[in-house]
Amino acid sequence: MTTTTSTTTSTTTSTTTSATAALVVLGTADRLRRADRELLVLAGTVGETHVVVPDVPGDALLDELAAHAVATVHTPEGGPGDRLTTPAVALAEAAARETGATVLLLPGTPEAKDVAARLGVRLEAGVITDVVALDAGLVATKSVLAGGWTTRCRATSPVLIATVRPNSVEIPADRRTGITTDGTTDGTAAAPDGAPAGARRPRVRTHALEDTVPAARVVGRTELPASGRPALGEARVVVAGGRGTGGDFGPLEQLADALGGAIGASRAAVDAGWVGPEAQVGQTGRTVSPQLYISCGISGAVQQRAGMQTAGTIVAVNKDEQAPVFEIADLGIVGDLKKVLPQAVEHLRALRE
């Protein structure tokens, strides 16, 4: 049983909603990431945009949201707490009912999909995952069956909940705060001070929530060491290695750094202990949709394809000319990756000189 009461930090006493509203559920109250901006751009094509954040937003975030014409930011009283999933669900449910949102958009992360599924039950809404496009009629496009088919589907319920794959939405140039002109970063650079000229900061709505649904609690956190590379799920370039690397990811890291990309890996490489599980791409790992995916020493079986086949351009480097990855590659190179990749890095560096 969930009961909800709400208070507001704004002096405005009335809430204005439009006939069509979209609610974006964000997992951070800090600066926007590229994937967050993609959700906001997509929401803007639906109607009036509202946002849910897990903690009190700072001025920098409010300025960034103002650039996306966000009307209201919904936040929980007392912060996110130590409970997993259920606080985010309760907050998003309260915000959705208050705004009358017909579309709820979430990132394509495992955590967000958990939230989406629970919201679907509470709001009696249809849930579509791994969306890569959403048209004006709320018809979603997604890739299914290990990337072998592209489908278009529409929820028959009044409310649609969709999780969106990163790198699926083009961000207009005037909203690319923190993204370099070549598009190789993940949008984490600092934004300029102050909201854009003419932009109005969104109203902040604080909800006091009482949610007694059982939930796991966080008892400790361990930060991953910073690599200086973009997050795998948001990177526009991914260089992935498999069994064919022999455990030496040095050439892949050099190429990834030259391209401003992230490191990925097959399950075989992760199981061997060569890289951490956070880098695994595939059916039992992460699903990525970068503009460029470079497969190095990976055979390209269906399990791997399920996690990367929607990439814009696929380049494969493998000594085995019969490797299945060449069937889906836009460019295939038959050769030793330890010879091919250093040549590529040398050429890229020469181009920048």
From TrEMBL:
<dbReference type="InterPro" id="IPR029035">
    <property type="entry name" value="DHS-like_NAD/FAD-binding_dom"/>
</dbReference>
<dbReference type="InterPro" id="IPR001308">
    <property type="entry name" value="ETF_a/FixB"/>
</dbReference>
<feature type="compositionally biased region" description="Low complexity">
    <location>
        <begin position="178"/>
        <end position="199"/>
    </location>
</feature>
<feature type="domain" description="Electron transfer flavoprotein alpha/beta-subunit N-terminal">
    <location>
        <begin position="21"/>
        <end position="195"/>
    </location>
</feature>
<comment type="function">
    <text>The electron transfer flavoprotein serves as a specific electron acceptor for other dehydrogenases. It transfers the electrons to the main respiratory chain via ETF-ubiquinone oxidoreductase (ETF dehydrogenase).</text>
</comment>
<comment type="similarity">
    <text>Belongs to the ETF alpha-subunit/FixB family.</text>
</comment>
<dbReference type="Pfam" id="PF00766">
    <property type="entry name" value="ETF_alpha"/>
</dbReference>
<dbReference type="InterPro" id="IPR014731">
    <property type="entry name" value="ETF_asu_C"/>
</dbReference>
<protein>
    <submittedName>
        <fullName>Electron transfer flavoprotein subunit alpha/FixB family protein</fullName>
    </submittedName>
</protein>
<dbReference type="Pfam" id="PF01012">
    <property type="entry name" value="ETF"/>
</dbReference>
<feature type="region of interest" description="Disordered">
    <location>
        <begin position="174"/>
        <end position="204"/>
    </location>
</feature>
<dbReference type="InterPro" id="IPR014730">
    <property type="entry name" value="ETF_a/b_N"/>
</dbReference>
<dbReference type="InterPro" id="IPR014729">
    <property type="entry name" value="Rossmann-like_a/b/a_fold"/>
</dbReference>
<comment type="subunit">
    <text>Heterodimer of an alpha and a beta subunit.</text>
</comment>
